[in-house]
Amino acid sequence: MVSLGYTLSSEEFRPNELVANARRAEETGFEFASISDHFHPWMDSQGHSPFVWSTLGGIAQVTERMAIMTGVTCPMIRTHPAVIAQAAATVADMLPGRFFLGVGTGEYLNEHITGAQWPPISKRQDMLIEAIAIIRELWGGTYTTHYGEHYTVENARIYTLPEQLPPIYIAAGGPESAAIAGEYGDGLINTSPDAEVVDAYLAAGGKKEATYGQITVCWAKNKDDAVQTAREIWGYTGLPGQITQELALPKYFQEAAELVTPEIVEQSIVCGPDPASYHAKIEEFIDAGFTHVYLHQVGPDQEGFLDFAKRELLP
Q: Roughly how many angstroms between the first and final C-alpha of the chain, as a whole number?
């Protein structure tokens, strides 16, 4: 049995709209939601990128049951891990027992803004491991001093801690990062139904019941309309390889997305009103070993998608 969740797309909505979408997702019956943590949107056409930790405070006030996770936070470059430790502890106290901290190695798009070096992936992986260790130590509630390879913490103590500390889920796009998630994290996050990634995570000691996969979709009454909306707002997702980790500005993603055809969009985003296509993609993730699948509806028609999900997906 798979658990279905919903994506709160910070790149597409103002903070109060995200809060309203979270409330409606819970009313619709989704068990959990993920919210993106970006400084920039991916593309100029998306139009927004509010500060996630403020938005989470609003979501805490309008939801009661739905679990919430960041999808994902980079606790390494533009934000020091000690700051993330405090932010996550505060949100976990506001969402008792239902907040998960999702973390990853970030993208140049967001992390270059303070002028820090953008390291290669091997170094970012080391930085993430050290950042997670700092966060966990600070969550112990005692004074922490840390002089590490990448970070310094001096006599820091977090006073407001939740009764239940949040688990830390790690995003992984390949087996090496998945092994890190299995060894250092409490769960796995991925955007592809990749069984090799799940296997590497499990082999490193990861928990089978905490495997989370995201599907990007665009529901509309007409498939052609859905494809057009997906291409205009989320077309960058059809770009190949590691390019999405290395471009610096939303306008560069916008320019690169012009090369993405409607046919490519259909290959990477589930589009249209046919429930069978959604079921098939969810089954791909289940077959790859994921126990939780969350759906990102591209575009402004969140209400239409939520009605569709209540009828055709959640049952």
A: 12
Q: Is 38 a catalytic residue?
A: yes
Q: Which residues contact 289 (CB under 8 A, 6 or more apart)?
A: 195, 198, 199, 202, 208, 211
**Using an 8 Å Cβ cutoff, are 188 and 210 in contact?**
yes
Q: How far is CA 221 from the centre of its chain?
A: 27
Domain with 226 in it: what CATH number? 3.20.20.30
Spatial separation of the C-alpha atoms in residues 183 and 177, rounded to whole Å: 10
How many folded domains does the chain comprise? 1
Write the pLDDT tens digit of every residue in 234-254: 999 999 888 999 999 999 999
Quick check: is 209 catalytic? no
Q: What are phi and psi of 299, to 5 degrees?
A: 105, 175
CA distance 55 to 18: 7
User: Which one of 12, 38, 130, 292 is the catalytic residue?
Assistant: 38
Give residue 17's domain range: 3-312
Segment 64-110, tens digit of pLDDT:
999 999 999 999 999 999 999 999 999 999 999 999 999 999 999 99
The catalytic position among 11, 12, 107, 130 is 107
Name the nearest CA neighbour of 141 among 155, 158, 156, 164: 158
